[in-house]
Design a protein that fits this description.
With 561 residues, this protein is α/β, with parallel strands linked by helices. It is built from 15 helices and 17 strands.
Length: 561
Amino acid sequence: MSTDLTSSLPAGDVVDRMDDPDWWRQAAVYQIYPRSFADANGDGIGDLKGITSKVPSLSALGVDAVWLSPFYPSALADGGYDVDDYRDVDPKIGTLADFDEMTAALHAAGIKVIVDIVPNHSSDRHEWFKRALAAPKGSPERDRYIFRDGLGENGDLPPSDWTAAFGGPAWSRVEDGQWYLHLFTPEQPDWNWDNPEVRADFLKTLRFWSDRGVDGFRVDVANLLVKDLPEVLPSKAELDSMDRDSGDYPLADRDEVHEIYADWRRVFNEYDPPRTAVAEAWVDSPARRAKYASPEGLGQAFNFDLLQADFSGPQFHRIITENLEQSRNTGSSSTWVFSNHDVTRHATRYGLPPLNGRKVKQGVEWVAAGGPEDELDRAGGLRRARAATLLMLALPGSSYLYQGEELGLHEVADIPADRRQDPSFFRGAEYDGLGRDGCRVPIPWTSSGTSFGFGDSDAHLPQPQWFADHSEQSQDGAADSTLELYRAALGLRRELQAGESLEWLETGREDVLAFRRPNGWVSITKFGGDDVELPDGDVLIASAELDGRSLPGATTAWLKQ
């Protein structure tokens, strides 16, 4: 691909790119978990005014866009992904007027706004679900969701033996004896996407936020919407034996889902510039993921491959090569991510023993064990995380960053049971161990204070004392800090970014990866422990201190040739 997005842009300057339809292709996108970012009113919960107050920090960081995890009215059965009303703001974190003020402030700083859309399920407090419960069996109101009669003589057995993602059964019974499907918690009933009213209402929601100035959407579990539910449902064992890459698996990644996203694309294209979207689609096949990134559909899909990889030269080389090839095939741009609201922070993951092919979520076992310090190499994990991030920021495509990684935060493992919030903890989801609360702890802004500058009262999740040394205040202006590394790297990235291509450079060893980007920009990463000689060129930035022309282990450097 030869798309050239930017000329050299002065680092730190506010640059107006609001009219560029291709802004997303190589954007640095910063994910904000609103309830844990900044608390302006002192109630312990982050809010929209808190985000607005931190626009100068986001601008100084140098990101191109922010992605907001759900901020809608919610009982927080699943961290806001149980949505009561898709076209409003949770009163605990603000108002629509606050949202407009925040959007205006971000746009004035040259920062785009992406919001999370949750189309597979609503909350059980959504007005339509309350109407469904009040309406009789077979009513139009119930047809907006997935209701079934139960099995057994009195219908007191669920329609199937399926389990939900966070543990427990995937069906819940209502007062008149019917059951409704929820692939996540009982508070998250699945929509019936065969119902035209559901489809029309989501188009209304997309226009509602687009009209308010939203620039794009992150689509939660984009592969789950459409389902094939015959009268006699398959058992869990039968589901487990089915091919998930065929396009006709009953519960996920069905070909028909792309008809929905074609309708969404027509809405996005009503705007100038068109609204963007990125799919969270956990699919195994690159060909299946490519369908979500189609320009006739959402346009981009998350690539989680690096997020699941060890800190390994061969693994990184294979993943990068494969995903750039996928991007060429789709005409989209790739996405790169190491941390988000659902996984153990990558500074911690890289401080634990490598998985070496084990199919588990890295860090989950360590958190479940209480986060034993003797098993975690904190300094080494952060060093590897810095090197991995600097490599990632040199790649063509979009870089997705998660709040707090610019501060070098590790996972918070020792959260008391009575302070935990994640449903996977309460419902026994094996793949999440003790849950995802450890990456959602409110981030530190100052080195002291009740909640390290998050707000004027205790944070809704407990913060550890070691946060003091990781705060923005403690790192601001410190040349060797992770914050200043991110600021410098993002500024250089904006200056150097050009065509969406790279050329691998031969290094003669599998633990050293080097590639050249257009404009003579070279990134080189040493994964192993011993030093190697840097190639010719002026060193622009390095993830760790260099000794002359030697590149030490777990270090990335950028050079200009």
